[in-house]
Please model this.
Amino acid sequence: MDSVNVAADQFLESLRQTSDLPHAVIIWGDEDYYKKAGKAALGKLLKEKADAEGQEVSVWRFQDKFEINALREAINTESFFGGINFVLVENPWLLPKHGAGEQKGKKKSTGGKTDKGQTAVQQFMELLSDVPAYTFVLCLCPKLDKRSAFFKNMSKAVVLAECPTLKAYQLRPWLLEQANSYGARFSPEALNLVLDYVSAFDTVPLLQLQQEIAKVNLYAGQRKIWQAEDVLQMFSQAPEISGFALGNAVEERNLTKVLDLLAEERKNAGSGGIVPIQLRLVSSIRKLLLVKEMMEKGARQETITAQLKMHPYAVKVTMAHCNNFSLESLQKCMVALAQTAADSRQGGRTWSRLEEILIDLVAKK
Model:
């Protein structure tokens, strides 16, 4: 596989379709799901390759701070008995931070200068650009600056796979792929329910969502068409997702349910205290407010979907919920939530004040 710059999902698909495995891969970006999937896929394929050739895989791991000389040895040392080296480099310290310019640290910080007087980054690039046939290197790193010398040089020498975070409106193909991996599929109602759950996220936590989908598969058992009830039963048990049940209850103006769920959230609050539920409520009310403002200006569902980049089903549900509230009540709630967040940092009331705000919103139109 020649040097190439692709999206991480395309890279994973290419691994399934070729036996020509790349000897140096950099998977970079903010979404850890693709890094984990890439590491697992490449490790599995190397194990299969070694088994087919009657060899062993030697795994070398480097994380954060490490010695360049040790990395060079791992990449270039061939086992006396043959075999494959799988060198995994995670979050390498020597790369320039995104937007921070090039790293100027010299080789002396990793064991002295070379004859060429290269920096650590230059040596790292040289190692990745000249990987021997018996070695495969996978580098997992955070967001890279595409203007940096490292990125420009590596884009010509290795496979670069970018893994950006996904928005809720981009999620449908990923969900279908996840279900297909279990030989299953979501019913339309179940799929729409998942999309509704995640619509309040700025970016979707794919690793967490993958875990919840695995639970749906276990819960459904032999049934391969997952229903909305399957999603509801499993997702409602996830702390970060179950909190959206409170937002849904607010939107539906179900005061009894709001108070019960708020009490449950308070009882189960972890080290983050009230902050996580505040953030989820702000996200839910903000969504209502944005849609309500557009509705009052005469915007239709298609326009709102395009402008706010929400899933059409989520827009449809939100528009229906908006009819439960006046614009003024939503604006008042947003101000009150912001004030409560500020006051709580100064030792002010938290849970009791949040209860008052929600009662005021839900009980009055």
About this structure: The first strand starts at residue 4 and ends at 7. The longest helix spans residues 275-296.
